[in-house]
Amino acid sequence: TKIWQNFLGRIPFVSSPNYTPDVTAIIIEKYKMGESLEDIADLTGKTVTSIRGKLVSEKVYSQFKMQRMNAIQKRTFDDGTVLSQLELKAGQEYRFDDLLAYLNKAGYLRVNRSCEMGYYSVHGGVVTIHPFGCSNSISIDYFGDTVEAITDDLEKTVLLTVVIEPFSPSEYDAGEAFNSD
């Protein structure tokens, strides 16, 4: 035991970062709006791990994930709207922010790099998404609020249209989609 005490005494422990009520409110608001933890970390200067810990300690992280999952499974939200598929066509006017809002409502999770079904990423005016039920990820290029091009990332082919399906428990294992703790 003396060896362990000696060893542990040499490890520098970092105290958890202080969160003011204002920073906590910003983190919670941004998370509920669907911002990625990485983007929130960039904004607040905190680490992703400490932000996740703060969201867990505030009982927001799992509570919000469960609310989203339940709503997505029902495809009906508190405001009474029913979630349906979204079809985008090259050349179509569809607000960039509306696409991100739809993806968040439809059960997609924002990450830095999209590679698995149910995830999406944003880099400049390009949204890369791996839609539920599709074998490949799709890139949607925007110019302003116009869908400029849609590309199948694996086959490198240009598509005229893409249909984005919301989360469906029958098509995808819910535990896998929401197990990002």
TrEMBL record:
<dbReference type="InterPro" id="IPR027417">
    <property type="entry name" value="P-loop_NTPase"/>
</dbReference>
<dbReference type="InterPro" id="IPR041471">
    <property type="entry name" value="UvrB_inter"/>
</dbReference>
<keyword id="KW-0547">Nucleotide-binding</keyword>
<dbReference type="Pfam" id="PF17757">
    <property type="entry name" value="UvrB_inter"/>
</dbReference>
<keyword id="KW-0067">ATP-binding</keyword>
<feature type="domain" description="UvrB interaction">
    <location>
        <begin position="86"/>
        <end position="151"/>
    </location>
</feature>
<protein>
    <recommendedName>
        <fullName>UvrB interaction domain-containing protein</fullName>
    </recommendedName>
</protein>
<dbReference type="GO" id="GO:0005524">
    <property type="term" value="F:ATP binding"/>
</dbReference>
